[in-house]
Amino acid sequence: MILGIDKRNMHKDLIATLFQGALSVISRLPEKPWTVKQQWLIQLVRRVGKKRACITLVNKTIRTAWALLSKGEEYKPQLLAV
Asked: SS3 of 35, please?
């Protein structure tokens, strides 16, 4: 069971690395999204700010990675309909 991100459940260096990666993704978001995830992330940043959006993105990334690894699938971004 995934309990979330906090200093009791994960190593601090791993949390810092994942946070920096999420911050990098958020800082490079395009003005016009081309995937559903980018659209969701742009709206999230507007709603809650960059730092909270980073934590949310890290949580989502960990859960996605766990689901993909447990099912043996590859990540396929869902493109927006044009």
From this structure: strand
Question: Cα–Cα distance between 56 and 58 in angstroms, integer?
Answer: 5
- DSSP H/E element including 51: helix 50-71
User: pTM here?
Assistant: 0.81
Q: Are 39 and 78 in contact (CB under 8 A)?
A: no
Quick one: tokens of 12? Answer: 């601090």
What tokens does 74 get?
């590859």
Q: What percent of the chain has pLDDT over 70?
A: 87
Which residues in 8-28 are b (16+ Cβ under 10 Å) and which e?
Answer: eeeeeeebeebbeebbebbee
What's 79's DSSP letter? B
